[in-house]
Amino acid sequence: MNLDPDALSVGDDLPTFHVDDLDRTQIVRYLGASGDFNPLHHDDEFSRAAGQDGVIVPGMLVAGFASAAVTDWVPIDAVDRFRTRFVGTVRPGDSLRVSGTVAEVETDRTGNTTTVEISITVDTADGATVLEGDATISP
After folding, report:
1. For the whole model, what pTM was predicted?
2. What domains appear along the chain, each with residue ranges and CATH number?
């Protein structure tokens, strides 16, 4: 995207990023690519024995969707920092909505934007927040 950092204002929203019906195939592909074979993410019986209602989606896969929302908006080399906090559980079949809002814009003495702080949220289709995060962008 061709973004004019000097045109950004606090409260501006990033384009919403959607993941519809996160299925087990997507989860297994992620597990293979990441090398994360924790049975919580692929074995229902193990997950239930661990106190879950079944398989849970890896948090880092959800964080990856959040980072994709940011890098769909700005080039990856403009992202100086990206932080997340997992606040809920994602299950196979969930649909996710990643949203972001400009939280702060810093400028230099001449008024040119130097950094942009973005707050990020990932919610399930039923409105439960599962990830909160932020990113610092340097145009």
Report:
1. 0.91
2. 5-22+58-137 (3.10.129.10)
